[in-house]
Amino acid sequence: FDIAIEADLIEEVARIYGYENIPANMPTAAVNFTPVAEAQTSIQTMRSTLVAQGYQEAITYSFIDKESSLQFVPDVEPVPLANPISAEMGVMRPSLIPGLMKAYLHNQNRQQSRVRLFETGRRFIGSVDALDQLDQQERLAGLIAGSRETEAWYHNSDSVDFYDVKSHIEALFALNDGDKPSYERADVVYLHPGRSAKVMIAGEEVGVFGELHPQFAKALGCNQAVYLFDLNLDAVLVGKLPVYRPVSKFPEVRRDFALLADRDTPVVSLQNIITEHAGDAFKALSVFDVYQGQGIDDTKKSVALGLTWQHPSHTLSEDEINKSVEQVLAALEEQLGVVVRG
After folding, report:
1. How many CB atoms are located within 10 Å of the residue 222 CB?
2. For labelling, which of 12, 13, 60, 212 has a CA lying 20 to 30 Å from the CA of 194?
C-alpha cells in the first residue's frame, strides 16, 4: 500500500468500504445575521442617490503629499508615514478634498469639462506619537464642475452653482426622513468666503460646502468654477423611523411679511426665532425673496417670508393668528432688531 500520510489511510478505508456507500449530505453551518438599524440609510442607497444625480464614485489614495495636506487643511499637522512609497504619498490625508481635486484636474487635462465625483472614506487626524488615538472619521466628499445638464439641443448649457450642491446635500439628508439641515456662514480656507456654508444638524456642524476659493482655483490651474462638499458620513446615514401623522381636515392660514434686517443677519436666525415663537399650530416657513438695493438702506436687506399655520382639531380664528404674528414680530425686533418693512 502507498500509505504515507493520514489522507492516504482515509482514502484506502473509503475505497474498501465503497465510495457509493458514503452518504452525500450537504454541509451545514450556523449563520449569524447582523442586525441593521431601521433608522439607518444604507451606504448603497446613498451611493445610488448620488449616481442618480450624475456623480461617479472615485477611490483615491489615503496617502497624499504634505504640501497638498497643508494647502487644504493648514491648521492640522498631517500624520507622516514611516516608509512612504514616494514623496507624493508621504502623509495620511486629513481630508478627502485634495484627492478629489487631483482627480478633477486629471479629467480637466483630458478635455472633460463636466465632472461630478464623490468618495467615501476615512480622514486621519492626530499625532504619530499617539496612533491609538488617531481620529479616523468616515467622510463623504464630492465635487461638481461644468454644465448643469449633459449636452443636448433642448436645453441651455448653464453651469452648476452653489445651489446645485445644496440641493444634492438636502437630497441625501432626506433619504430616511432625517433632520433637515440648516446652514451658517463658513470660514474654510479653500472655499470662497461669500459662496460657502457650514451644514448644521440640530445645532451641530456636520460638514461644509461651497465654491473653491478663486486663489486656490488659479494656483491649481482650474479653468472653471469648482464646487465641493465634505460631510460626516455618519450624520448623512442616520435617520428616523417614519411616524404616522394625521392629515388635518381644517384649512391652512398663511401670512406674508417683508422684514427689514441687518445685511449681515443670516436668514437662518430669523427662521429659528420664528419657529420658536409662532405657536403650536405653526406648520411651515418659506423664504421667497431677498432684496438689497434702491429704497433700502445700504446696511439693510429685505427678506420676504411666508408663514403657514394649521391646527389639527379646529379652524384657526383671526385672533389666534394675530396673536401668533404679534409674538413672532415682537421676538424678532427684541432679539435681532428686525422690523416689518414699511
Report:
1. 17
2. 60
